Amino acid sequence: MKKQRQNFIFTLLVAMQLITFFSCKNETNKHEKSVIKNWSFDKKIALDSFGVIGIASAGDGNLWLSDADNNQLIKINTDGQILETQDGFDRPMHIAERDEALLVAEYSADIIRAIHHGHNDTLDFPEDFDAPSGVDAEGNKVAVADFYNHRIVFTDSTANLTFGQKGTAPGELTYPTDVQFAHGKLWVADAYNHRAQVFDLTGKHLKTFGEAEKMNAMTGIFVGEKQVFVTDFENSRVLVYDLDGNLEQVITDNLDKPTDALIVGNLLFVVNYHGRFVSIFKL
């Protein structure tokens, strides 16, 4: 009887130790998963007289910038050296690089321009724009942020769709400035509602985020693999969210009226219109 009692106590002690071990391990794993690496400032690229609004990858490690003040596009390397310029635009705003083509939203011309292997074409849409400010493409799908019409225009090879109207309710927009395809959804910078909205590809509203951070004009949005970056223009901030819309970081260092953001490799590039420079951040 005594031996059985001793065996029972020994077994109980071992079980308690195992429970403690696995509990500690689980807590450690939870802590490791909750650790978020923050973006930190690396350097600036001075842009001098360029009034840059949008940024896109050039596909070769370099960057395209839209210079709205001088009605041109400029291609630079990460040291700020100008490699190429293209003029003849009418207030180019946000730009996007997809499948070796560079798409340009021309705010004052009410058109979307596509530049591909030296050819410069205007894309056809069933709707007339009133100051398009943002554009993106994915395969045969194209989406445009139609600023003064307070809507998104979406087209692919089988359908044409518009959604949104001026207002503050979910799915309504007030001067949208930027749009991006990512993770099977459309992500919209709802600039003067000071928030981001996410839609499916039929225009159905899925979620809204960013309102709690009291932004003042969300001018640009970039969606990466795991994070969403939005530029808070008047507050000179970049807000970093996870894909569910949970705030992870607020960047304020070395920013001056940012308008757009882009990830290339492990670097975050942020365009600053007022400061006339690009800020580079790294993890």
* Average pLDDT: 90
Unreliably modeled segments: 12-16, 18-22
In total, the number of strands is 24
Strand order of the largest sheet: 1-24-23-22
Main beta sheet, described? 4 strands, antiparallel
Distance between the termini: 63 Å
Radius of gyration over alpha carbons? 24 Å
Please indicate the percent range of residues in DSSP E strands (runs of 2 or more).
over 45%
How many distinct helices? 1
Q: How much helicity do the residues have?
A: 10-25%
N-to-C SSE string, H for helix and E for strand: HEEEEEEEEEEEEEEEEEEEEEEEE
Could you please describe the fold and organization of this structure?
The chain is mainly β. It has one helix and 24 strands. The protein has one helix at residues 2-34; strands at residues 40-46, 52-57, 63-67, 72-76, 82-87, 92-98, 101-106, 111-116, 119-122, 132-138, 141-146, 151-155, 160-163, 176-182, 185-190, 195-199, 205-209, 218-223, 227-232, 237-242, 247-251, 258-264, 267-272, 277-282. It has a four-stranded antiparallel sheet with strand order 1-24-23-22, with no helix packed on it. Strands 2-3-4-5 form a four-stranded antiparallel sheet, with no helix packed on it. Strands 6-7-8-9 form a four-stranded antiparallel sheet, with no helix packed on it.
